[in-house]
Structure formats: C-alpha cells, structure tokens
Amino acid sequence: MVGVWPGDGPGSGRGGEEYERAVGAIAAGLRGAGPAEAPRRLCEVAVDLLPVDGASVSLRGDSMPLQLAASGGVAARLAQLQATLGDGPCHHVLRTGAPVLARDLEDGSCADRWPVFTQQALGSGVRAVYALPLGSTAVCVGTLDLYSASPGSLTAHQLHVALLVAGVMTVALTDLPFDARDADDGWLSGLAADHDRVHQAVGMIMAQLGVGADEALARLRGDAFAHDLTVLEAALDVVARRRRFDMP
After folding, report:
1. How many helices and strands (H and E) does the chain possess?
2. Structure confidence by residue, pLDDT tens digits, 5-16
3. Which residues form the ANTAR domain (predicted)?
C-alpha cells in the first residue's frame, strides 16, 4: 500500500513521447495562471493526465493539513475530511515524506488503518487513493492526493507523471515571488487566517475545559465530524461563541 519511488526516468523506456505530452499538458494548463490559480489548475491537469477522478492539494500546517485547492467537490470534501479526522493517507505522507498508494479501499488493511476515512471515501464513490509528497523525503511541505472511482494501481509511467505534477506543484507553492506570498488576496494570506482561527478556537477550548492543546484539537475535530463540519467551520463557531465545550 505504501509506495516507493520508481527508478526509471523519462529516458529509460517509458515512452518519451508520452512524457513530453505530459510536460506539454502541464505547461498548457498553467498558461496565464496567477499564483492563486496554479494549484487548482494543476489538480485539473492531474485528472486529465491520469486515470483518476479527482485531485486535491494540501499544505503542511502546525496541527493539521490545510486544503489549498481541489479539482472538484468530492476531492475537496475528502481533503477536508482528512484534516478533520487527523487521519488518512495524506497524514502518513506528511509524517514520512513517502507516497501512499492505496490501490483498493475495500481491502481490509485500509479499513484497519483509516476506518472512518475509508468508510467515508467509499461512501463518496472513491475506491483508490494515491497520496504523493510535495517537496522531498527530507522536507515534505504538503501532499497531492489523487482519488479514483475504480480500484487499481498506477503504472510506472503514470506514477512518474503524477510525481511530475507533484514536483511542479511544489515549485508553484514554494518558489513564488515574495510579493505574491504577501498579497492581501493571495492564497497564503487566506490560509494563514484560517489557520489562526483554528488555533484561536483550540485556545478557547483549552480555557473552557482546562485541557492541553492536543486534547482541545481532538475535541474540536470530534465535534466537527459529529456535526458534518470541517475543522475550520467548527472553529469559526467556537470563535464566534456559537459553540462552547463547557456546556451540555
């Protein structure tokens, strides 16, 4: 289930023309895209190039991954679900820096590792998940998660294409001009604001219950899942004082 980095490259028999087509498709998909658009465009390119039905990209956060973009509603929901649960393939990637290739979520090993995520993903029509690191095994800055409605493995060539998209995604996220990172309407400023709200909510729960940060975050995640909310949505309820944890 946990993938390894393939050893063959563009010039070792995988088909130079197919590789060049993938490079061209990525370039075409990014043409004219600003920094805020690039992650979503690359998710859409991944769906076009690979036998998958959805893609999402999440950044590493202090306490949970932060969903940045997705190709569609199901992919966005599953990325948010992993953040809410604190579990799922992307969390393994963030911990280890190695890809996870879950070929069939109906396999018992998937249910053992991620019981709630697997149940929810299957209920959404997803049978396979391929989660790839952004960055390297030494420094993983996020994940590219690919979702397929059909079970099965990626071929060596398909995995190389997926890794190529992940590499371009990494550059798009980490090699931005300084002013693009700090722009008022930039994606990073929006993510930072969302992250701050979650931390603020965790602090309020700590004060209400007299518990530590890990327990407070676990309570927030549990409450979000119980009410079919994302962690951010649950955090906003806490910050707005629509939800308290020291009251029945």
Report:
1. 11, 5
2. 443 444 444 457
3. 178-239
Least confident of 4-13, 20-29, 153-162, 222-231: 4-13
Locus of tokens 């990073």 = 188
Give the CA-trace dihedral at 89, 92, 96, 98, to 10 degrees.
Answer: -10
End-to-end Cα separation, the chain, in angstroms: 42
Within 69-186, where are the H helices? 73-85, 89-96, 108-113, 115-123, 156-174, 178-182
Residue 159 zone, left/alpha/beta (φ > 0; ψ -120 to 50; rest): alpha
- Tell me how crowded residue 34 is: count the other CB atoms within 10 A of its CB: 11
pTM listed for this prediction: 0.77
C-alpha 107/C-alpha 103 separation (Å) is 8
Q: Residue 20 has what pLDDT?
A: 84
Cα maximum dimension of the chain: 64
Strand 128-135 with 54-59, pairing: unpaired
Q: Which residues pair with 129 in a beta bridge?
A: 102, 147
Beta bridge partners of 246: none
